[in-house]
# Entry
Amino acid sequence: MKITDVRAYALEVPMTEKISAPIGFPRAADVEEGVFAAYRSTLVFVDTDEGISGVGECMTRLSGTALRDICLTLKPLLIGRDPRDVELIWDIMWCTMLNRGHVMGFYQEAMAGIDCALWDIWGKHAEVPVWRLLGGATNPKLWCYASSLRLRSMDILRDEIDQHKANGFNAMKIKIGKDPMDWRSEMKTVEAIRKHAGDDIMLMADVNCNYGHDLKTALEVGRALQDQGLYWYEEPLYPDDIDGYAHLRDHLDIRIAAGEADFNKNSFARFLRRDALDIIQPDAARTAGITETRKIADMANAFRVQYAPHTGSSSNIIMTISMHLAMYATNFLIYEYMQSNWNKGQENPLRDELCRLPIKEFKDSYLTIEDVTGLGIDINMEVVEKYALP
Ligand SMILES: [Mg+2]
# Structure
């Protein structure tokens, strides 16, 4: 089997109205008009001479056309190769820009889309699911949490919590940290959420890096969350602040989680060597695909660190890819089952229409995946054509 073509599409669904940043975010007011102006995704298809095609996704916060063009630029390196040589092809792509320092960022996100498409082809050709290629059904049922509650009025939050519970979730994440100066009033809302949800619901908090400038606030909030029995404290600091994360882990009992903004096994290894995290959250649409994410999860296992895949900000493609990785990883903890869009008033066709999730059953906060070959992703090309940028 040989690769014959690589096709890539930058999809963009503009917001019908301007929205403010839905999450705490450093300099949110200054960046929201760019970052949160559209739902975005970059899709990659790899075709073969046996008529089998695979699909993957590149995480796209901005400039999907740049990701699309990187994927297309890599095409000559792939043509004629056996797509099942995933390690070799990954290494060729990695080495192409390695000595230019492109070991993070857009280049890795472009590699991610191609790499996942190769695994999809391999699975389809072998007529097995990708989780089988990875090592089998270590976790035949995936524990899930609802992602995410945003701090708003308790009237709205009570309804959301009740809805998640009615849908079968026993774990939920709360986005905090919108106003680092006013964290005490946020903690009052977290306390009200805890009270309404009940002690049998597991809660986690996610800051999206917004205490990055202030380690003391990060510590104080961590203690407050710990006192309320939250399970983990996610991304309080800037993504590369290894010393800061190590400090928090030394001074807090609540589990420290991070990794959605990280890119490769070498950068994750620096966190692990410092014992800076309890839970890692790589996103396979960012960390250069399934090939690299599997290594990151396995490496974390050796450091007694658990794996909780990040799936937000992308389409159902990465949600599905993450299910396969979660099925396999021995240190898998919990799956981020996205339940909300950036814009509460606008559905996201990249979630709702592009492809469906191959979920056989979701019950008592656990999902089981359908019997699929490859990744089990069936793309609606009408959605691709409708939202593809020229
Ligand atoms: Mg997060």
Remarks:
- The two ends are 31 Å apart (CA to CA).
